[in-house]
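Quick review question:
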């Protein structure tokens, strides 16, 4: 838990409670924010009062609770007043209905009208909880994507047994993860207003040259076939985007992906592991940091046939493979060359024994940090918008909650800035 009282004292958080069984967990988050020094106001939907009553919120906040647009509890225009008052707004448990209203800009009750009235610079954190099918419904997922695109911070639900007895995604994230997300957002918002350097946003990597590898590689077997993997490139592209946003000079060496290059990033397109190796080694000569997020093929066919192999009389089941050059290990081995101290970060996509495998990879590859992710999880890994990772270094392991890939990128770049 973040508990820096001096920074949090007086920070104003508006807690918007929606009608779901997890509403009772909003009490714990409220108490946690108050313990950290925040002043919390609550806005509740009428539905949410079925789960947690008025007396609880009024007792905990010592403030009259407004639930209706025309119930002027303490304010003539409660939605505008509350929205303007807050340093950060938390919506929990965010129902599918409330996220749909947010996505469409509907304002037909006190909470949705308040959310529409929140000034653009105020961070909004949304922690959904609902039945697995409601969560996975294309409409909900589209609304979540819309909100994220607009800068709303999603604290993603986790998998587990749900109140309806279904098992799957939709369980509210742990309360401490939600409280941490709010405190972090408040700190950044307050630091942004005062120009403090703790708002890493635009400046923390100014002038730093960052090389990033991303995406899969394709290893040709013949003119029409190749060996590949399921990497989408999303994680590497998110790091490139966040690093550029923080002022870094970014070179993104990308394998074949459908993703567009983030603005302000120098993109070098490659296809094979050998091409990625050559491009990365060349770019590393001028870099301060290398982040190897690519899923590089470990093996490539020894010879590439110059014609399409015919299965009837050519051995497609006996393709001889040779190991590719390990780009991460090679960059790590040269990171001290020329009297420079460069930071090298690798990724470890694992399906089992995550911590053990990542620790072994850190030593074997000789890098400064490994970002380990369990690609067997539903909320993590290839093609997903979220990732659940651990940072593994010689100082130990830091386990992160499920975050968007952009948030993981931010946390990673915070660590890189420390290492620099
Ligand atoms: N990597 C690389 N060049 C390669 C293979 C991997 O730079 N030829 C990098 C990846 O970009 C990633 C890290 O090494 O940062 C881990 O890759 P991974 O494939 O998980 O490691 P391996 O060495 O292949 O280990 P294993 O197959 O035993 O898991």
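Suggested answer, residue by residue:
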């Amino acid at each position: 838990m973040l508990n820096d009282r001096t920074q949090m004292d007086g920070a104003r958080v508006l807690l918007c409670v929606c009608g779901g069984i997890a509403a009772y967990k909003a009490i714990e988050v409220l108490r946690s924010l108050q313990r950290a020094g925040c002043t919390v106001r609550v806005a509740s939907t009428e539905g949410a009062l079925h789960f947690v009553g008025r007396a609880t919120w009024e007792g905990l906040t010592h403030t009259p609770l407004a639930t209706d647009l025309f119930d002027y509890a303490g304010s003539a225009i409660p939605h505008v007043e509350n929205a303007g008052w807050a340093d950060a707004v938390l919506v929990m448990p965010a129902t599918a209905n409330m996220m749909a209203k947010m996505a469409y800009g509907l304002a037909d009750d006190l909470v949705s009208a308040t959310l529409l009235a929140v000034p653009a610079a105020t961070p909004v954190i949304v922690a959904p909880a609902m039945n697995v099918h409601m969560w996975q419904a294309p409409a909900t997922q589209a609304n979540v994507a819309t909100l994220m695109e607009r800068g709303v911070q999603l604290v993603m639900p986790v998998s587990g047994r749900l109140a309806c007895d279904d098992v799957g995604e939709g369980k509210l994230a742990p309360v401490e993860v939600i409280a941490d997300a709010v405190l972090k957002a408040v700190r950044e918002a307050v630091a942004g207003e005062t120009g403090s350097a703790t708002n890493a946003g635009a400046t923390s990597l100014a002038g730093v040259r960052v090389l990033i590898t991303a995406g899969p590689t394709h290893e040709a077997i013949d003119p029409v076939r190749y060996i590949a993997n399921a990497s989408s490139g999303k994680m590497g592209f998110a790091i490139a985007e966040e690093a550029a946003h923080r002022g870094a000079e970014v070179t993104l060496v990308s394998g074949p992906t459908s993703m567009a290059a983030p603005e302000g990033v120098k993109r070098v397109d490659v296809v094979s592991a050998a091409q990625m190796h050559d491009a990365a080694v060349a770019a590393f000569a001028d870099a301060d940091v290398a982040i190897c997020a690519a899923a590089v093929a470990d093996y490539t066919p020894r010879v590439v046939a110059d014609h399409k192999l015919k299965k009837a009389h050519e051995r497609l089941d006996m393709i001889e493979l040779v190991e590719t050059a390990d780009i991460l290990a090679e960059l790590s081995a040269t990171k001290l060359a020329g009297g420079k101290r460069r930071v090298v970060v690798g990724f470890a996509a694992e399906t089992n024994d995550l911590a053990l495998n990542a620790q072994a990879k850190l030593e074997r590859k000789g890098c400064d940090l490994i970002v380990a992710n369990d690609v067997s999880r539903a909320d993590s890994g290839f093609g997903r918008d979220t990732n659940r990772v651990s940072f593994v270094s010689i100082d130990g392991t830091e386990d992160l909650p499920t975050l968007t890939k952009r948030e993981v990128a931010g946390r990673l770049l915070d660590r890189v800035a420390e290492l620099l």
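Why it works: The radius of gyration is 24 Å. Residues 175-194 form the longest helix (20 residues).
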